[in-house]
Amino acid sequence: MDESEDVPKDFIKLKSEKLSVDEVSELVISPYCGAVSLFVGTTRNNFEGKKVIHLEYEAYTSMAESEIKKICRDVRQKWPSVKHIAVHHRLGVVPITEASVIIAVSSPHRAESLEAVTYCINTLKASVPIWKKKSQSIKQQHTMKG
Question: 10-residue block means of pLDDT along the chain (146 residues)?
């Protein structure tokens, strides 16, 4: 494979189906890269001391995709050696332990891909119009007087 066959690519997907770490990581693998860094954000069962049943995400899809593309452009300016970037975010209900977001970045060396994946998730959470709603279990205590 020559260099022209492995041009840098961005893979952006917002979907309601379950996300796959294997699928996302395979998108960014390149024979020119010795590092693939991943971030997987999952739904945990608690938030601020309250039980969480699931998370639910909604997005302004076209704007979210546009903002993620900007993040990818920023990554390529900050870390020019980055080869491929994949950002998959789930929409709708996400049960406990399932992935809400998976970000994968490949580069020749680990430092660039690790820094880039951290930048991606931090910037995504700060600037991309994807909203999270927590469904919490609220236990009410009733006092019986008799």
Answer: 73 98 98 97 92 94 98 98 98 97 98 98 97 69 39
Residue 4 confidence (pLDDT): 54
User: By the 8 A CB rule, do 30 and 106 touch?
Assistant: yes
Q: CA-based Rg of the chain, rounded to a whole angstrom?
A: 18
The pLDDT, as a whole number, for residue 5 is 65
**CA 109: distance to chain centroid?**
21
Strands 92-95 and 50-59 turn out to be antiparallel
Among 135, 64, 74, 136, smallest CA distance to 101 is for: 64
